[in-house]
Amino acid sequence: MNLRASVDASLYRDLHVMVNGMPGPMATAAAQACLRKGLSLAPVGLTGPDVEACTIEVKDEDTGRSASVRLISSVDMDEAGASLLGLRAGAGEENVVAIDYTHPLAVNGNARWYVEQRLPFVMGTTGGDREELGRDVGEGNFAVIAPNMGKQIVAMQAALEDLANKFPSAFDGYKLDVTESHQKTKADTSGTARAVIGSLSALSAVPFDVDSETKMLRDDASSLDFGVSKDALNGHAFHTYQLTSPDGSVRFELQHNVEGRRVYAEGTADAVKFLYKKIKEGKAGKVYSMINVLEEGAQDDNNHVSGQKLETWERKVSMLGVIF
Predict the structure, then answer these.
(1) 239 in catalytic set
(2) Which residues contact 45 (CB under 8 A, 6 or more apart)?
């Protein structure tokens, strides 16, 4: 174990991560990423109202680490509160951080519960009423809330936002077209698409209604035609944004394609570590974004993979530049 890994192990030794939304694939991937980064999972987690209470085994195939987690239905919040109280009694009041990958309809209710319980959380679930979410969490509460947890994609979003701020209307009059493909189970428009569209709309100075004008692909045939691999149909995020000049003679295209969930899961685990570090530093409660996580450099050596795994990883995340 190198010095940095040793310091990390010491800093996060007492942390217990409560992952809510399992056995859903994104929540499970986030739990596996936590194990991969040496974090301990809380023995309890919330699940959806249509899932029976049960105990599942979460295993990270890379490291072989595993943990048993008892899932509590969200219809039984009294039991959830009692379980959290018992967990804190053993782990310490400040040593529990939650991850939320549940459902857009649960976002606001879950956030209010976290605030009531004074439970720091990382909100990876998109959708819900985001303005209400901001009001409910407010100041004095620890949270990381972001429409996308993939660090590389967040960096791209930040660059576009900076571009829009520095050069507003640089693409004045250009028409924006957006197509995004996700697995059939994703109920809402991509939060990433909303953020990127906001920046591109500022550059073009042409109004764009995200809900009515974004072309959402949610069926296998359309996704395959869009370039998604067959084995990634159940977990992918392919986005293409096109800006076309008024006379059609110039076209700019931005594309970012992700197959699988690992890039988001890794970022989520890093967000947990970032938030816990702020708590242990005695900082006042605050709502952070993934930009803050990136600025802090909350990425550790566990993010690297080698050999054949690296080649596979590079194929899973691709960001293609501008086409003229």
Answers:
(1) no
(2) 18, 19, 20, 21, 22, 27, 69, 70, 71, 72
Q: Please name which of 175, 314, 196 lies closest in space to residue 251, comparing C-alpha atoms.
A: 175
Q: Cα-atom radius of gyration of the chain, to the nearest Å? A: 20
Amino acid occupying residue 324 = F
Which amino acid is located at 318 in the chain? S
Helix extents (H) in the chain: 3-11, 25-36, 77-91, 107-116, 130-137, 151-166, 191-204, 210-213, 220-225, 262-280, 290-296, 307-316
Q: Which residue has the tokens 């690296």?
A: 310
Which residue in the list 37, 186, 239, 256 is annotated as catalytic?
186
Tokens at 23, concatenated: 């056995």
Beta-bridge partners for 69: 56
β-bridge mates for residue 253, sequence order: 242
Tokens, residue 68: 């048993």
pTM of the model: 0.82
Cα distance between residue 68 and residue 55, in whole Å? 7
* 157 φ/ψ angles, rounded to the nearest 5 degrees: -60, -40
Question: Percentage helix, strand, coil, to 5, in the chain?
Answer: 45, 20, 35
Each residue of 20-32: pLDDT tens digit? 999 999 999 999 9
Tell me the pLDDT tens digit for each residue of 65-110: 999 999 999 999 999 999 999 999 999 999 999 999 999 999 999 9
Before 23, cis peptide (omega within 30)? yes
**Active-site pick, 37, 151, 182, 239:** 182
For 272, residues 6+ apart whose C-beta sits below 8 A from its C-beta are 15, 17, 34, 39, 97, 99, 122, 144
Q: Has 103 been annotated as catalytic? A: no
Region of 68 on the Ramachandran plot (φ > 0 left; ψ -120 to 50 alpha; else beta): beta
Q: How confident is the model at residue 290 (pLDDT cuts 50, 70, 90)?
A: very high
